[in-house]
Amino acid sequence: MFVGPFLGVIVGSVLGVFSAWWALRSAPELLPIFAVPVKDRGSGAPGPPVAYWLTWASPPVVFYCLCGLTWWRWRRARWSVVSLAVAFALCFTPLALLWISLDIGGFSPN
């Protein structure tokens, strides 16, 4: 009974880390202005391209759509899918927030 949710946590964690790694490697390169801290940039600096945001948004959107379909269609797997989705969120979200803030916020010394 508890094997499914336990496996969901393990698989969700692995998929969360792998998805964040994939998005990090697949995201388009940002302009060199993004290496400068936000407070030192001019007000005319452009924002990140839409492709950058789509790269980071695509893994969770695809993953949660598949989880939602599985949860809706397969009654026995509901607890496993919930644990899978929670583990994915707990792994993907902090990594994505960290890398996006480093990419956009700048990290070079003053």
Description:
By secondary structure, this protein is mainly α. Helices cover 69% and strands 0% of the residues. The chain has helices spanning 3-26, 50-73, 78-105. Helix 1 (3-26) runs antiparallel to helix 2 and helix 2 (50-73) packs antiparallel against helix 3 (78-105). 19% of the residues are buried.
What's the quick description here?
This protein has helices spanning 3-26, 50-73, 78-105.
Distance between the termini: 55 Å
Q: Helix tally?
A: 3
Low-confidence stretches: none
Please count the beta strands (DSSP E, at least 2 residues each): 0
What labels describe this entry?
mainly alpha; 69% helix
Topology:
Elements: H1 3-26, H2 50-73, H3 78-105
